[in-house]
Amino acid sequence: MGDDSDWMKLPVDQKCEHKVWKARLNGYEEALKLFQRIDDTSPEWAKYQGIIKKFVTDSNSVAQLKGLEAVLAYVENAHVASRTVGEVLSGVVCKVFNQPKARAKELASDICLMYIEIEKADIVQEELIKGLENKNPKVVVACVETIRRALCEFGSKTVTLKPIIKVLPKLFESREKAVRHEAKLLAVEVYRWIRDSLRPPLQNINSVQLKELEEEWVKVPSSAPRQSRFLRSQQDLRTKFEEQQAVAGSDGDCEDVADSAPQVDPYELQDPVEILSKLPKDFYVKIEAKKWQERKEALEALAMLAKHPKLDNGDYGDVVRALKRVIGKDTNVILVSLAAKCLAGLAFGLRKNFGTYAGNVVPTILDKFKEKKPAVVQSLQEAIDAVFLTTTLQNLSEDMLAVMDNKNPSIKQQASLFLTRSICLSTPSTLPKSLLKPLCAALLKQVNDPAPEVRDAAIMALGTAMKVAGEKAVNPFLADLDKLKVDKIKAIASNVELAGGKKGGGAEKGKPGTKAQSEAPAKPAGPPQNAPLYKDVGVAKKGKPGAEGGAKSKKPAETKEIVETELSVEVCDELAAAVLPASCVKMLDSSNWKERLASMEEFYQVAEQMDIGAMPCQALVRMLAKKPGWKETNFQVLQLKLHVVAVVAQRGRFSKTSASVVLDALVEKMGDVKCGGKAKDALTAIGEACSLSWIAEQVVSLAFAQKNPKNQAETLNWLANAMKEFGFTG
Asked: Where does it primarily localize (predicted)?
């Protein structure tokens, strides 16, 4: 009792440091009362600033628990509390998170969150992430759980996500089940805030774990998450938030004050990778070697390094010049394609840092579009699209204008298609009149080009420019253009979809255009999509035929006409070979009719099951015309061919260009006793895809040019029946 009387007379701060645990317990209890009572500017706080860490590291578990309560009150009320964050949290992580008592860990977690509330989120997060390296799994679990709580309550604007995402894959590799479980919960919480931006960093974790995550992500509500706790500097928001909740109820919409999930670019979550020092020592020697296999080895080594989503900035001048030489001068198309992919990888990985090289490579890529092989064209498109994202249309305008007068139709076509894709990513402010005028002048020359693919591409670019800049800006340049082409440009403009769903400068009459969000185009997370072979133009088109086909009225439905460039035979062969089985292609021209029939049955099954977006309609109907084509002598094979035409027209994105390939043959078979019915079905399907008014004109013209009375009679019969089915609209 004498010993007790000795320490009981001591001041509170000295009791807290006493060697007797009961004295410390008593000191912590009195300190807790003191911290809850005194003013936040009181000089008393300073006495405890140097010893507050000892409250959390107390060796006696009973005293430690009371010490944690006192620390929580201290952090909440003391004006000097922010100065203690580092030492207190290191003690919390090492000496409290490993305790068996749940109450101790709960208080420790509350202390961490209180430090965040007083504006020390960065240090709290740093200490918790350090704790993930602790060898005690209990400490790791508690750190992960506290990080998750912080993110859930304060939101992703307060808690920095990048360092969290960086450590997640390692947590999933832990041998401790409890750690992996907490990692999964944290990954789900992060997903709430950034959605699909979390997928790329976690693609390499165990497939079973990834599948489990995918299942949990599906359950996450689609509504944007909101912060429920606020920093001291956000207390005015907290007041408004509570007022709105009181009015609207707990489910009220408080988006004006609560933190909604910010848009996160996956690129920003990545750490840059330095690749220049990792290039093979003989890279520059091999890339100029005489043997193409050696040049390929050098490019493959670079391609592997360029796959990293974020690259460290450096001097890539020599690498870019080497790739430019391969693209511009190498005669091996495989190497040209590989070099283009490397260039795209560098552009995606460096982003704005690649902009200094853009002007050097764009002219070379544009000139190489004279190469017609689809694989090479696709790689070049991906490369030039990636390069565009690192610079601006203004910077590339001179190079664009220079190739517009090129004699090669492929170069002119691809230049216009590239321009279309670039304008889609632009805004009215990045497409000023000073830039619009020369571009429109160059495109107007191509509108009258002899090559149809060049004309179509130029019209598409003009329509896209009208969508972005508005009719008022583009109309003056179209004064000398005939009305048919102007209408086509306007039709394209009305249906173009801009990046991010923006409406462009002339989207709605009487309303101002959407304000430009940024001078730079939006950056996609992955490579750009290939330029499509066809585009949508808004016109009225008929509905699909019913399964019965007969006398049911086919009511017109508002949809889109497909404008497609005419493809060469070689391109069509490659596109068809990519979707049809090799055995099917091989037996199409077999001398044995049974093999041809088997081939067509396989062809039909592929057409029936193929995805609409993946169906190369023009290539497929051209493949049907291959020898013996429409001169087929076996009626079973011919019936199946005609049926395939109907299926492709019904299921695919069928254009007038594709229709023109088969119309002559269909009209020729109209009077055939065994195949006439199938020919009429095919014509009906094409009429629905391309409009009855257009196909009627074509079919009647072709029928009366053949001078076959039976074909002419059956054509008129088909047309009369079609008018009953479609009605007179259009």
From this structure: cytoplasm
Task: Please state, in angstroms and rounded to a whole number, the distance separating the CA atoms of residues 435 and 35.
Answer: 67
Q: What is the dihedral angle through the alpha carbons of 365, 369, 374, 375, rounded to the nearest 10 degrees?
A: -20
What does the DSSP 8-state code read for residue 531? P
* The total number of structural domains that make up the chain: 4
Residue 574 binned pLDDT confidence (cut-offs 50, 70, 90)? confident
3-state secondary structure of 542: strand
Sign of the CA dihedral with 536 first, then 537, 542, and 543 last: positive
Report how far residue 84's alpha carbon sits from residue 77's, in angstroms, rounded to the nearest whole number.
13
Does residue 296 contact residue 191 with C-beta atoms inside 8 Å? Answer: no
Q: 562: burial class by Cβ within 10 Å (0-12, 13-18, 19+)?
A: buried
At residue 220, φ and ψ (nearest 5 deg) are: -65, 130
Q: Which among 248, 173, 233, 232 is positioned nearest to 208, based on CA atoms?
A: 173
Hey, is 273 helix, strand or coil?
strand
Q: Where are the beta strands (DSSP E) in 534-627?
A: 534-542, 556-564
Asked whether 579 and 564 are in contact (CB, 8 A), the reply is: no
Which of 214, 579, 522 has the alpha carbon at shortest distance from 374? 579
Q: Give me the sign of the Cα torsion angle 329, 330, 334, 337.
A: negative
Strand partners, 534: 564
Residue with tokens 């795209």: 344
My answer on whether 628 and 715 are in the same domain is yes
CATH code, 82: 1.25.10.10
**CA proximity to 362, closest of 422, 408, 308, 306:** 422
Q: Say yes or no: 127 and 67 in one domain.
A: yes
Q: What is the distance between the alpha carbons of residues 644 and 723, in angstroms, rounded to a whole number?
A: 24
CA–CA dist 153, 113 (Å, integer): 9
Q: Report pLDDT digits (tens) over 359-416.
A: 999 999 999 999 888 888 999 999 999 999 999 988 998 888 888 888 899 999 999 9
Give the end of a domain, one of 478, 497, 516: 497
Domain residue limits at 315:
286-391
* Stretch 658-684: mean pLDDT: 85
Q: What is the C-alpha separation between 514 and 502, in angstroms, rounded?
A: 7
Mapped onto helix, strand or coil, the DSSP state of residue 39 is coil
Other CB atoms within 10 Å distance of the CB of residue 164: 25
Structure tokens at 695: 């196909």
- Say if CB 34 and CB 42 are below 8 A apart: no
d(CA 216, CA 198): 13
Residue 202: count of CB within 10 angstroms of its CB: 18
Q: What is the pTM of this model?
A: 0.57
Query: Which residues are registered as beta bridge partners of 311?
Result: 273
Cα–Cα distance for residue pair 308/345, rounded to 1 Å: 8
> Shortest CA distance to 531 belongs to which of 402, 377, 334, 364?
377
Residue 548 included in any domain: no
- Predicted confidence band at 448 (pLDDT cuts at 50, 70, 90)? confident
The upper half-sphere exposure of residue 404, i.e. CA atoms within 13 Å in the direction of its Cβ, equals: 26
Residues 21, 89 share a domain: yes
Alpha-carbon distance values, 265 to 152, 159, 260, 521, 541 (Å): 20, 16, 16, 14, 40
Q: Give the model confidence (pLDDT) of 515-567 as tens digits.
A: 333 333 333 334 333 334 444 443 333 333 333 333 344 444 444 566 667 77
563 phi/psi in degrees, rounded to 5? -105, 120
Across residues 45-56, what is the average pLDDT?
Answer: 91
The tally of CA atoms less than 13 A away on the side-chain side of residue 572 is: 19
Distance CA 609, CA 651 (A): 9
- 512, with CB counted inside 10 A (0-12, 13-18, 19+), is exposed
- What span, in angstroms and rounded, lies between the C-alpha atoms of 216 and 219? 5
Report whether 88 contacts 53 (CB < 8 A). Answer: yes
